[in-house]
Design a protein that fits this description.
The chain is an alpha/beta fold. It has 22 helices and 20 strands. The chain has three domains: 148 residues, Cobalamin-binding domain (Rossmann fold, 3-Layer(aba) Sandwich), CATH 3.40.50; 202 residues, pyruvate-formate lyase- activating enzyme; 88 residues, no CATH class. The longest helix has 19 residues. This is Anaerobic magnesium-protoporphyrin IX monomethyl ester cyclase.
Length: 589
């Protein structure tokens, strides 16, 4: 019997961990097992064609909120021309409301409910032996037109009994690879499916070492732990990170390796800070789900936390070179516009590397789904079940927050406007007010309907600031410090990439006047570039000839020193190399 396991990933660079567990478990009895990964952005005709040509007896799909629609379309396209092929689906998106799903999709033969490593093997044996799968635990299936539901096993699988998922020599270069060292979560968040089962199971650290070593050997450099709460057990988490460090140090390109962990802020403490202080910079990246700082909301969703207490660790971790992503969820119960504004501002002011503004997904099986009427949760009926309205937040307000999210990603999360934002935000009562007002202009101008190139984002911000100035003048005020903001924007412009032309609005009068005197301007630039000062602070200078040095640098004049927060005029040299930019203040020797 030939088995084909299929994943439609959200992006090409992603990999599917679940199917690799299943492949290794299945091949003990069914060596003719194939694995194919696609992207939801691929043409469904091509996906269906490749699956058809595999001539499999059983095709299994891994289903999530981001790929269920496309998966069903592929199966419907295949079913008429593959009458003898059985289609089985598994994953969180089909583990709840299974009976309704099978009634709506008669072309699907069975659903695996919950963990599938043991279930899928028993299901395949039943089909091969010509038996109905009535004895197989953890499936939903159809028998004589009637939906049958076999409950999942009471005792969950031990992680140490799972097959090793990465036995094959696959090329993971440039891909995001997933691993897990725990299953379960100590918390009971009502918006998350982890609340549907209790307890946390742990993988023996040395089993992880074998897996991590294999991944590095196969070119993986960005590895994400799918553990719901990586630091659920401190000793276990520290042991895993020790292995990450030990194995990474054996590679010549250790600096290109990064692991991503999702942690709970409430479980951080001084011992964690001492550990991170001595951890290799950039090796670990953390994501922490704050979700909200509104205590009544946190109580409803069963996720109490003391953000005001643990946020002190954020600045420490950033000093240790740990990139930090913080998450917020809009649309949670009892959080209105003003409450969410407070949550946003409190999290934003901690200055994370990335602030991910997400929107509640009212997932099948979640506690909030069961209580959606109580809290007035209106949501899209199809995956990903995004919130549309609550009794505390109108649909219009959610649309405004979605516009804000787009602006936040373009300007803050891109990391390209660090200096400009620092000064522009001073013009507004809070960060939330800036992003809201800026998003309103984008919406009014219909800018969201187009894809703008990077440099155009500077134009939009400048136009917004002019609108702010016009409004201030109408009120008899004009408090915008144009010189400082212009310097900050121009500095970010140079940090984006080496510019050929600087827009006039980013030039101050002194710079424009100096540029008009072309000889004097060029003489000053040449003097700065040729100064022996750079050989002391940029070692790469000695390896470049004059043409390379000129091509990889830019010289700019500023009326104030942004990095040293001084009002003194200064020159900066920007060094561009391998996609990275560094700025150096010119100190005349």
């Amino acid at each position: 019997m030939r088995i084909l396991l299929v994943a439609l990933n959200a992006k090409y660079i992603h990999t599917n961990l679940a199917l690799r567990y299943l492949r290794e478990g299945v091949r003990t009895l069914y060596p003719d097992v194939l694995l194919k990964e696609f992207s939801i952005n691929d043409h469904l005709d091509r996906i269906a064609g490749e699956i058809y040509e595999a001539k499999a007896d059983v095709v299994g799909f891994s289903c999530y909120i981001w790929n269920l629609k496309e998966t069903v379309e592929v199966i419907r396209q295949l079913h008429p021309v593959c009458p003898n092929t059985r289609f089985v689906l598994g994953g969180p998106e089909v583990s709840f409301e299974s009976e309704e799903f099978l009634l709506e999709h008669p072309e699907v033969d069975a659903l695996v409910i919950g963990e599938g490593e043991k279930t899928i093997l028993e299901l395949l044996k039943a089909w091969q032996d010509g038996h109905d799968p009535s004895h197989v635990q953890g499936i939903a299936w159809t028998k004589n037109g009637k939906i049958m539901l076999n409950p999942a096993p009471v005792s969950p699988l031990s992680m140490n009994d799972l097959p090793f998922p990465y036995t094959e020599d696959e090329d993971f270069t440039g891909r995001l690879v997933y691993v897990e060292t725990t299953r379960g979560c100590p918390f009971n968040c009502q918006y998350c499916l982890s609340s549907t089962f209790q307890g946390v199971r742990f993988l023996e650290p040395e089993r992880f070492r074998k897996m991590f070593r294999q991944l590095l050997k196969n070119g993986a450099r960005t590895i994400k732990f799918v553990d719901r709460t990586f630091n659920a057990n401190k000793r276990h988490a520290l042991g895993i990170l020790d292995i990450v460090r030990e194995e990474s140090e054996l590679h010549s390109d250790a600096k290109s390796i990064r692991v991503h962990c999702e942690m709970a802020g409430d479980l951080l403490d001084a011992e964690w800070m001492d550990y991170f202080r001595n951890y290799p910079r950039g090796l670990v990246q953390l994501e922490i789900g704050v979700q909200s700082t509104h205590q009544p909301t946190l109580k409803i969703v069963s996720r109490p936390q003391r953000f005001k207490e643990w946020k002190k660790y954020i600045a420490e971790m950033r000093c240790f070179g740990i990139p930090l992503h913080l998450d917020l969820i809009a649309g949670l119960p009892e959080e209105n516009w003003l409450n969410f504004r407070t949550s946003f501002n409190e999290v934003y002011e901690t200055d994370p590397d990335m602030l991910q503004l997400g929107f509640l997904k009212v997932l099948k099986g979640s506690g909030l789904r069961l209580q959606s009427s109580r809290y007035g949760l209106l949501f899209v009926p199809d995956p990903p079940y995004t919130i549309l309205e609550t009794k505390d937040l109108s649909h219009s307000e959610i649309l405004q927050l979605q516009h804000m999210e787009s602006i936040l990603d373009k300007y803050y999360n891109s990391g390209k406007f660090e200096h400009a934002l620092r000064h522009v935000l001073k013009l507004f009562p809070t960060p939330f007010d800036f992003y809201h007002k800026f998003a309103e202009l984008w919406h009014k101008k219909d800018w969201f309907s187009r894809q703008w190139q990077g440099k155009a984002l500077f134009d939009k911000l400048w136009e917004f600031l002019q609108d702010v100035q016009d409004a201030e003048k109408r009120e008899g005020m004009d408090i915008i410090p144009w010189n400082i903001i212009r310097d900050a924007l121009r500095f970010d412009y140079y940090m984006w990439e080496r510019p050929n032309i600087i827009p006039d609005y980013l030039q101050d009068e002194n710079s424009l006047e100096l540029e008009k005197r072309t000889d004097q301007w060029k003489t000053m630039q040449d003097k700065i570039r040729k100064d022996a000062y750079w050989e002391m602070i940029i070692p790469e200078v000695k390896k470049m000839d004059r043409r390379q040095w000129n091509r990889n640098t830019a010289i700019a004049y500023f009326t104030s020193d942004l990095l040293q927060e001084s009002n003194r005029p200064c020159w900066y040299l920007f060094h561009y190399q391998q996609g990275k930019v560094k700025a150096y203040r010119y100190e005349e020797s």
